[in-house]
Amino acid sequence: MEAEKLKLPQPYQNRVNNAQGHSFEKAIERACAIYAQAGIAQIEKTPEPFRVMSKAKSGGVFQGRFTARAQPDFQGTMAGGRSIVFEAKYTTTDRLRRDVLTERQMEALGQHGKIGAMAFVCAGVQDRFFAVPWIRWQSMKEFWGRQYVTANDLEPYRVKYDGAVRFLEYVHDVKKAEAAGGDIL
User: Within a domain: residue 80?
Assistant: First the structure.
């Protein structure tokens, strides 16, 4: 039986998904370091709004809780001064749903985009990676006719991957692909 057809117990599947999400974010952080080193951009992971409630006497164990709704995952500044803000989402399945972003994250991306920031969703679908302009993500239903996207839908927004998710480096000429839709980033 093929691995993808196996139904894993939900707690195990959750751990697998969480680990792959962390791996995806680390690959994005590698690209952030490359861009910083090259003087292209200074972009950092946004810390989670989290508070330690109590600590165990030994072993480094603690109890904590989230103190606010999450902001987009990454924020920074491009060379020249333009702000950049994006959310990172990864799936092992063949589709990524619009509602994987929280209302707060969607609101923040929309507000940043309105005032000129480069706002997008950095998406991983299985083994392919994309920088989907916020204008496309927010109007997914109108653009793709449904509330989810596949890797094939996102192909025009595929970015380079070399161990780092190079979210600023498209594989295809996005401006040419989006000529009819106007400025996207």
Answer: yes
Q: What is the mean pLDDT of residues 86-108?
A: 94
CB atoms within 10 A of CB 36: 14
pTM: 0.82
Full residue range of the structural domain in which residue 120 is found: 11-56+69-181
Phi-psi region of 13 (alpha: psi -120 to 50; beta: other; left: phi over 0): alpha
pLDDT at residue 173, as a whole number: 84
* CATH code, 75: 3.40.1350.10
- Give the separation between CA 88 and CA 24, rounded to whole angstroms: 8
* Kind and range of the H or E run holding 153: helix 151-154
Query: pLDDT at residue 85 above 80?
Result: yes
Q: Which residues contact 155 (CB under 8 A, 6 or more apart)?
A: 172
